[in-house]
């Protein structure tokens, strides 16, 4: 259909965060592809920021058109660094870190505000971090189906300490349009921190009640913002 071909002028590239892999995007992917978008999914090794930026750029460069980069959680750091690539048209942050120059997950989480929930991150094991399985659902995926949340807890991807310490060299949001979904029930990245980062980035912000895993629990809300961003980018270039 003509509209579908217009819709697919950009590829949407989905970038996951720490402790998880790209399969969590499945329902968002389904909604977007059903709407006529081309969608690619990055599988970050989450060993170091440099490795994850390289993995993301490989996917960007495999596309025949410009891309809209979407990052969840730590994936926000990855898209902030990778998004300066000339093929990237815009950025969408989903309950994500959006660091400034020199920023990293480590320095963004080092001074939690009083009373903010503390993510149940276990002490590093051989250079990798895990969340306490017993507390994973409550902190990361409180509104996800209990069986799926238990599976996410059991199938955690080791998150390299080096990835948390990876610092952004030049934030893409300073030169590219951005959108941000604040998850108002997030127990991993406090909503006030999300609001601060989104405002600093000059992002178009929407707020939705949901856990840190809002991309899993509420794929329609997440896909709606991504589609809105894609359409606004198209309108700005026509």
Fraction in beta strands: 15-25%
From N to C, what is the helix and strand string?
HEHEHEHEHEHHEHEHEHH
Instruction: Report helical residue fraction.
Output: 25-40%
What's the end-to-end separation, in Å? 19 Å
- Would you state the CATH class? Alpha Beta
The order of strands across the largest sheet is 2-1-3-4-7-8
GO molecular function, one term: hydrolase activity
Organism: Ktedonospora formicarum
Protein name: Alpha/beta hydrolase
Pfam families: Abhydrolase_6
Explain how this protein is built.
The protein is of the alpha/beta class and 238 residues long. It has a single domain, classed as Rossmann fold, CATH 3.40.50. The chain is 40% helix and 16% strand. A 6-stranded parallel β-sheet has the order 2-1-3-4-7-8, sandwiched between helices. A two-stranded antiparallel ribbon has the order 5-6. Helix 4 (75-82) links the parallel strand 3 (67-72) and strand 4 (88-94). The chain is globular and about 50 Å long.
């Amino acid at each position: 259909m003509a509209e579908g071909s217009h819709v697919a002028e950009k590829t949407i590239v989905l970038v996951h965060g720490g402790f998880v892999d790209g399969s969590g995007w499945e329902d968002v992917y389904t909604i977007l592809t059903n709407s006529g978008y081309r969608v690619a999914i990055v599988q970050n090794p989450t060993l170091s920021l440099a490795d994850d930026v390289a993995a993301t750029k490989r996917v960007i460069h495999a596309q025949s058109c410009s891309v809209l980069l979407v990052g969840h959680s730590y994936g926000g750091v990855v898209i902030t660094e990778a998004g300066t690539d000339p093929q990237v048209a815009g950025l969408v942050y989903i309950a994500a870190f959006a660091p400034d120059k020199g920023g990293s997950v480590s320095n963004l989480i080092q001074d939690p505000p009083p009373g903010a929930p503390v993510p149940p991150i276990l002490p590093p094991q051989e250079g990798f971090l895990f969340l306490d399985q017993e507390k994973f659902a409550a902190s990361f995926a409180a509104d996800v189906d209990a069986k799926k949340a238990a599976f996410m807890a059991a199938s955690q991807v080791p998150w390299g300490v080096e990835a948390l310490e990876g610092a952004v060299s030049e934030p893409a949001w300073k030169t590219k349009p951005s959108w941000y979904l604040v998850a108002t029930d997030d127990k991993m990245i406090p909503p006030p921190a999300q609001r601060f980062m989104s405002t600093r980035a000059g992002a178009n912000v929407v707020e939705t009640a949901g856990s840190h895993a809002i991309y899993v629990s509420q794929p329609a809300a997440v896909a709606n913002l991504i589609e809105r961003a894609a359409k606004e980018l198209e309108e700005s270039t026509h």
